[in-house]
Amino acid sequence: MATNRPYYEVIRDLLAANIDSGRLPAGTRLITAAVADRLGVSRPPVKRALARLEQEGRLRHSRETGYVVGAGRDVEPIRLNLHALDLDLSGPLSPPSPQATWERIFETVESDILNCMPFGTYQISEAGLGDHFSVSRTVIRDVLSRMQDRALISKDRSSHWIAGPLSARMLDDAHAVRRLLEPSALASALPHLDAGLLAQMRERVRQALDNRTAVSQPTIDVLETDLHILCLEPVRNRRLADAARLAQLSLVVNRLFGTYIGVHDESEMLMEHRLVLDHLILRDGAGTETALRYHLDADHQRARARLKVLSVFSAPEIAPYLIRVH
């Protein structure tokens, strides 16, 4: 289907329809990887779709069970084989434009690698990666070479692909680039941002501030996506937008901290988001840049402190093609 809608919204609509019809029964546990496998899509858009459904009240989320269909706490979580359920998948799920084979798995591999980097050094098994995604060695080398171009991985002396560790120095370097690029990218997107969309983003921040001490990580993910991903989508200069996105390492650290350490007070971050959105709604480009730069500086300090905490843990969940070195 040709569409200008974000792909995760297509997935969100399909899952919502199956929940509302009862084809996804109350209590069903929805694991990102399992849902992606059932739908035949990559994990990143599924993750965003599940976070949006949780915010809408169709799902609930906890560290113990992940996402569960139904908002009530009295619903007992059940693990079902999604392939055995009679789901209505008649809606179009193909990505809006044709992709090369390496592009279909790139986002998932990138996410897997970024998720392991704060926890140590990992070797990437080319054979394991190929088996995991059922693709050829040529496709794998295309993916890994592009990861290397983005400075996410490197080769050691034995020519093994290595990811991590994510150091404070790497975080500092990424921040230096990000604070130069992202404010100007957001200002350039401002004339093309829909006023209604900005108002919805602002309202989500307000609701989170009203419940600031118990905001779930999926809700935080939605708010971060609003400001740092969706607001940059209208940027005409795609090289600028892509370079800004690649420097967003603090988002990875913050998400992992919230996922594995637990619920924590995000009042400062929420108020910073509110200020940026206020300037966007006022169509104040200079104010938007200043407010975003202030937020990025403050968020960098939070991410730096959280990276120290994460570094003492082992990665709770890593892809099977990643082998811990140290």
From TrEMBL:
Signal peptide per UniProt: none
Record-annotated HTH gntR-type domain positions: 5-72
Alphabetical UniProt keywords: DNA-binding, Transcription, Transcription regulation
PROSITE patterns on file: HTH_GNTR
InterPro entries tied to this protein: GntR_C, TF_FadR/GntR_C, Tscrpt_reg_HTH_GntR, WH-like_DNA-bd_sf, WH_DNA-bd_sf
Keyword DNA-binding: yes
Alphabetized GO MF terms: DNA binding; DNA-binding transcription factor activity
Protein name per Swiss-Prot or TrEMBL: GntR family transcriptional regulator
Biological source species: Vineibacter terrae
